[in-house]
Amino acid sequence: MILEHVFIFGSLIVVTWLLVIYFWPRIILFVYKRGLLVKGFGDGPVPVNTLYTQPQALFADPLHVSLPPGSSNLMSYGTNLDTLYVAGWLDLSKGPLVLRVPDMAGRYYSVQFTDPANNTNFAYVGKRTTGTEAGDYLITGPKWKGQSPGGMKQILSPSNSVIVIGRVFVKSDSDLPTAYQLAKQIRLTPLNQGG
């Protein structure tokens, strides 16, 4: 009788552990999505299909900057100390979006596209993959049918939900304003607005 209870209890622990392992990435992404879309990172909620740039003050002193009540400085903890962040949550069900990046003049930057359904990165735009010249990139969902206008490179998402995380290198304290202005120029527009 005791052996039967140990077996049942052990089986429940193993099943619970497997469920936690399976759902943990989804739980973390849910928390990230809620933090981004509901709480924001210093300037209030970030609307869907919008990119948010980490404020200069939050980058310069993440532990002591005063944020508005109800906001979060989640983006500043546990991150690189030499990189400004740009973040957004995309919904491609309403149509494609155009990512516009400025000329980075050789500066390191990257824009990472992640599928939240399985937490996999499916595309990058940046110094190592596309270079540092200015460019426009068409981000489309899996069911979109059409032609990429004007030779724009297409980034095909495996789902309509996409996490975007951009990074712009900051060389020094005196370089922060320049890096911040470049990060602010990484933008999204709907395709029907001309990119």
What does it look like?
By secondary structure, the chain is of the alpha+beta class. The chain has helices at about 1-40, 55-60, 175-185, and strands at about 50-55, 85-90, 95-100, 110-115, 120-125, 135-140, 155, 160-170, 185-190. The chain has a single domain (about 35-195), classed as Domain of unknown function DUF1254 (Immunoglobulin-like). Helix content is about 25%, strand content about 25%. Strands 1-2-8-4-5 form a 5-stranded antiparallel sheet. The chain has a 4-stranded mixed sheet with strand order 7-6-3-9, with no helix packed on it.
- Biggest sheet character: 5 strands, antiparallel
Query: Do you know the CATH topology?
Result: Immunoglobulin-like
Q: Output the strand order for the largest sheet.
A: 1-2-8-4-5
Q: Report the portion of residues in β strands.
A: 25-35%
Helix content: 25-40%
**Average pLDDT rating:** 83
CATH superfamily: Domain of unknown function DUF1254
Low-confidence stretches: 67-78
Protein structure class: alpha+beta
Overall structural domain count: 1
